[in-house]
Write a structure and sequence with these properties.
Blueprint lengths: L7 E5 L4 H12 L3 E6 L2 H15 L4 E5 L7 H11 L6 E4 L15 H29 L2 E6 L12 H20 L5 E6 L8 H5 L13 H14 L3 E2 L3 H13 L2 H12 L11 H26 L3 H55 L1
Parallel strand pairs: 1-2, 1-4, 2-3, 4-5, 5-6, 6-7
Helix pairs in contact: 1-7, 3-4, 4-5, 10-11
This protein binds NADP nicotinamide-adenine-dinucleotide phosphate (NAP).
InterPro entries: NAD(P)-bd_dom_sf, SDR_fam
Keywords: Membrane, Oxidoreductase, Transmembrane, Transmembrane helix
GO molecular function: oxidoreductase activity
Length: 357
């Protein structure tokens, strides 16, 4: 259903991931589209899908590498030449790069990343915002990240570019507050797109916790349409990360993020039994403790029962901490016993052979 026929959204980075999901939402709502990116084949195919599925009337594909000097100016000139009015600008295109800054990462890739994530986004905003203000109408969505508000070792330059995007956007929120033009920053947590592969971070632990790009795009789209200054998609869990980022010391945040960015440990088939055994023993201990507590509880006075209930409540967290530490200990004990047995096995075999001889 074309509810906003005649309006146009320009989206960078629509060929995949979050940008593609955003483009779909605009198409579903009846926007005409300008899609900007390097993969023009993919964008052409997407244009056909949108026309077929949602009756999108006009899709313009602009092939452009936004890491190149003045790429944004060229995009703007092409849009003007086609006499298209851009009502909504989405600066989604962005890349990351994984590795230690001093020794691992390549400067040319970092330079291109800064150009794309910072310069192109800023220039696109400058050019299209000027026209929006002249009309006193328009919306802009800038892709920031939860890394905008936390240091991120092993993705240091990327996090720096996203900190820029967030800060820049919030400054413009204030500058635009007396107009009908709005600007919104979208701060997703790690999301299930090709981003981590392209950044060389496919083995980072954080890729085990990725969220759905459809959800991210939907939350971003709704915040953009509502003219909100920022949105952290993903409900309470991600909002609590946001709050933590504002209140926790930077060193602590950097350590936390470093641990999330480290490579996943290699799976060790030999140790497969260890966690299972540990869980089994831990579960047994918990059941026995529960039975003992129930018996004790049933044999106490009303006053003591009230005290126990109070103590049980405040001890809840401590118990779960203690249980996980018991499990760790059991796992260690099992591992040590296993190593010792492996160490002693050849000696035992030799002694047996000598005895037989
Ligand atoms: N995935 C995450 O965990 C995550 C979390 C927070 C924020 N973000 C941000 O979300 C945005 C979208 O990322 P994604 O996760 O959807 O990753 P993605 O699937 O890799 O999409 C990146 C998009 O950027 C475009 N792009 C890359 N380099 C370009 C260049 N030089 N010129 C023009 N376009 C270029 C790509 O198109 P072409 O290859 O066709 O050019 C692609 O459409 C990025 O700004 C990213 O920083 C991602």
């Amino acid at each position: 259903m074309n509810s906003v026929t005649g309006k146009t959204a320009l989206i960078t980075g629509a060929s995949s991931g979050i940008g593609q999901e955003l483009a779909k939402l605009f198409a579903q709502d009846g926007y005409n589209l300008v899609l900007v990116g390097r993969s023009d084949d993919t964008l052409d195919r997407l244009a056909e899908v949108f026309k077929g599925n949602y009756g999108t009337q006009q899709v313009t594909v602009i092939k452009k590498n936004l890491s190149e000097e003045d790429a944004a100016q060229d995009v703007y000139n092409q849009v003007k030449a086609k006499d298209i009015t851009v009502n909504v600008l989405v600066n989604d295109a962005g890349v990351g790069l994984y590795g230690l800054f001093a020794t691992d990462t390549d400067w040319e890739r970092e330079k291109a990343m800064i150009h794309l994530n910072v310069l192109a986004l800023t220039q696109m905003t400058k050019l299209f915002l000027y026209d929006m203000l002249a009309r006193n109408e328009g919306k802009i969505l800038n892709l920031a990240s939860l890394l905008s508000i936390t240091p991120s070792p092993l993705m240091a330059v990327y996090a720096g570019t996203k900190a820029y995007v967030y800060n820049f956007t919030q400054s413009l929120v204030n500058e635009l507050k007396d107009t009908n033009v709005t600007i919104t920053a979208l701060l997703p947590n790690a999301t299930d797109t090709d981003f981590f592969n392209k950044a060389g971070a496919q083995n980072a632990k954080v890729t085990d916790e990725v969220q759905d790009p459809v959800m991210v795009a939907k939350d971003g789209y709704e915040a953009l349409m509502a003219g909100k200054p920022k949105i952290v998609p993903g409900g309470l869990k991600n909002k609590s990360y946001e709050v933590l980022a504002y209140v926790a010391p930077q060193e602590a945040l950097a350590s936390l993020m470093h641990s999330k960015m480290l490579p996943k440990p290699e799976p060790d088939a030999d140790n497969d039994m260890s966690p299972k055994l540990a869980w089994g023993i831990g579960f047994g201990i918990a059941v026995l403790a529960g039975v003992a507590l129930t018996v004790a509880y049933n044999n106490t006075s009303v006053y003591d029962k009230a005290r126990y209930r109070y103590k049980a409540k405040s001890a809840g967290n401590a118990i779960s901490d203690a249980l996980s530490s018991v499990l760790d200990t059991v796992a260690d004990v099992y591992q040590n016993a296993k190593s010792k047995a492996e160490e002693l096995a050849p000696k035992a075999k030799k002694a047996e052979e000598e005895l037989v001889a």
